[in-house]
Amino acid sequence: MRDPDRHPAEWPTVGALAVDTQRDRIGVVMGHVGKKLQLRPPGGGREWDADPQQVRPPEPSEEPSASGETP
């Protein structure tokens, strides 16, 4: 688990891929409100809120393919 006092400046940047380990989903960072990140599926769809402490960069094997599908 990450540092609970991590500052928003250390959060993933808008447009970056991120893995929400709490939901076991990969998403594109759309922004943040308060202490939550907003992620959206890489191919589009409904955004969800993620706890930044439960978000990490994806491994290369987790990144979506050119078709937008995750492995």
Topology diagram in text:
Layout: E1 17-20, E2 25-33, E3 36-40, E4 48-50, E5 55-56
Antiparallel strand pairs: 1-2, 1-5, 2-3, 3-4
| H/I helix tally | 0
**Helix amount, in percent?**
under 10%
Main sheet summary: 5 strands, antiparallel
Structural class: mainly beta
Low-confidence stretches: none
Q: How far is it from the N-terminal to the C-terminal residue, by CA?
A: 24 Å
Order of helices and strands: EEEEE
Structural account:
This protein is an all-beta fold and 71 residues long. Helix content is 0%, strand content 32%. It is built from no helices and five strands. A five-stranded antiparallel β-sheet has the order 4-3-2-1-5, with no helix packed on it. A hairpin with a 7-residue loop joins β3 and β4. The radius of gyration is 12 Å and the shape is globular. The chain starts with 16 loop residues before the first strand and ends in a 15-residue tail after the last strand.
